[in-house]
Design goal:
Blueprint lengths: L4 E3 L16 E5 L2 E5 L5 E5 L5 H16 L4 E6 L7 E5 L2 E3 L17 E3 L6 H16 L5 E12 L5 H11 L4 E6 L5 E7 L2 E6 L2 E4 L2 E6 L4 H13 L1 H18 L3 E6 L4 E4 L3 E5 L2 E5 L6 H8 L7 E2 L1 H11 L10 E6 L4 E5 L3 E5 L2 E11 L4 H18 L8
Parallel strand pairs: 1-7
Antiparallel strand pairs: 2-3, 2-10, 3-7, 4-6, 5-6, 5-20, 8-9, 9-19, 9-23, 10-11, 11-22, 12-13, 12-21, 13-18, 14-17, 15-18, 16-17, 20-21, 22-23
Helix pairs in contact: 1-6, 2-8, 3-8
Length: 391
């Protein structure tokens, strides 16, 4: 195979390069990566609980074969249930610039929402079950998710949705990725960097602890300040930060972790945030292999990891598929960027299936956690033209 061409010139908008055939855009603040021609090669990673680890090995073999300028990109599922397809780019653009987009929904664009799965009562019952598991010391934290289906009268365009998400949350990692199947795509705006490797430096920005945004500036500031001082939220955040730092430690000669969490926000929620930065060992692996060592973090799974995964399978009545998995890229030098697949939807023709979840720890209240999930649905619902989250 021949090497991949990387175009580093400024593009007017990386999302202009998206098509179902090329199917990969990941950007934040106008900078990112897009596949700009049909894939040079596609690596298929079969289902299984160790899928992300096998993906790392398979991708590195493909990158070596493709040449020193090659780059792999794609999405990996939460727990390896579906097949994953990652592409070796035949041509990619690594930079872009854009103006904020306020693309209106097409004329006559009518939407119909189905009931979420599970419904409100069943979700709160599942949270109560999780709290009993926490009280019985089976887990310290578990993340429980819901889905919601929205149907339109015309085909949904992943580029339109991604542009609207980007306009609402320009600081998030916006992605649009083609999945196997006609008109099938994964679209979202994730606030959470799992890992970035650049040369001998590595970084991660774990988020945990969430509060809805307020409707006016005064109320919004009050909600943010309360989040920062609430013991339950800080404890949930600490569980995530410590686990990510422990996961990065074996790869690093030095590792710096913020002493205290800080606040970060999206258009619909506040989060607690901690920056983690490290210097990599000479023998440190590539970005995807490091990401695989961290995945799934307590931010999307829980802790201890094995027990939390078991509880998720018991209490969630659906397959998460790509939700809470990873989206990103890695090049032949080992550099790359992987984000957690959050605030997302799978698009298939006229249908969008949305996903969102909430972290359950000691002190969680079922009604409050249910409302947190509704707030997280908000970004995608607004991009679809739905003003209010379902209740």
């Amino acid at each position: 195979m021949t090497g991949t061409s990387l175009d580093t010139a400024i593009a007017s908008d990386l999302l202009d390069w998206y098509s179902p055939r090329t199917g990969f855009v990941l950007e934040r603040g106008g900078q990112g990566l897009a596949g700009t021609s049909p894939p040079h090669a596609v690596v298929s990673v079969s289902p299984g609980p160790d899928q992300v680890h096998r993906a790392g090995s398979l991708i590195q073999e493909a990158l070596v074969a493709a040449g020193r300028t090659s780059v792999a990109m794609g999405a990996l599922p939460f727990d390896g249930a579906p097949v994953a397809f990652l592409q070796i780019a035949a041509h990619a653009t690594r930079a872009g610039a854009h103006a904020l987009d306020v693309t209106p929904m097409p004329d006559g664009y009518r939407l119909r929402r189905s009931a979420p799965e599970p419904d409100e009562d069943a979700y709160e019952d599942a949270i109560s079950e999780a709290l009993r598991a926490i009280e019985g010391e089976r887990v310290d934290k578990v993340v429980l998710a819901r889905t919601l289906v929205v149907e339109a009268q015309t085909l949904l365009d992943p580029r339109v949705l991604a542009r609207r998400l980007r306009a609402a949350d320009p600081d998030c990692y916006v992605f649009a990725i083609g999945l196997p199947g006609s008109a099938h795509a994964l679209v979202g705006a994730s606030p959470e960097l799992l890992v970035r490797r650049s040369g001998d430096t590595v970084s991660s920005d774990p988020l945990a602890g969430t509060a809805p945004r307020g409707r006016d500036p005064v109320h919004d500031r009050e909600l943010a300040a309360n989040l920062l001082r609430t013991a339950k939220e800080r404890n949930e955040h600490r569980l995530v930060t410590e686990t990510v730092a422990d996961g990065l430690t074996p790869f690093c000669t030095t590792l710096e972790v913020d002493d205290e969490p800080s606040l970060t926000s999206t258009a619909t929620v506040w989060h607690l945030h901690t920056a983690i930065r490290g210097r990599l060992r000479r023998d440190a692996p590539d970005a995807l292999t490091i990401a695989a060592a961290l995945h799934p973090t307590p931010a999307v799974c829980g802790t201890p990891r094995g027990a939390a995964l078991e509880l998720i399978r018991e209490l969630e009545p659906f397959d998460r598929r790509f939700y809470a998995g990873m989206v990103g890229w890695v090049d032949a030098q080992g550099d790359g960027e992987w984000v957690i697949t959050l605030r997302c939807a799978e698009i298939s023709g006229r249908t969008a299936r949305l996903y969102a979840g909430s972290g359950i720890v000691a002190g969680s209240e079922p009604v409050a956690e249910d409302r947190e999930v509704d707030a997280k649905f908000g970004a995608m619902l607004q991009a679809l033209g739905v003003n209010q989250p379902p209740r």
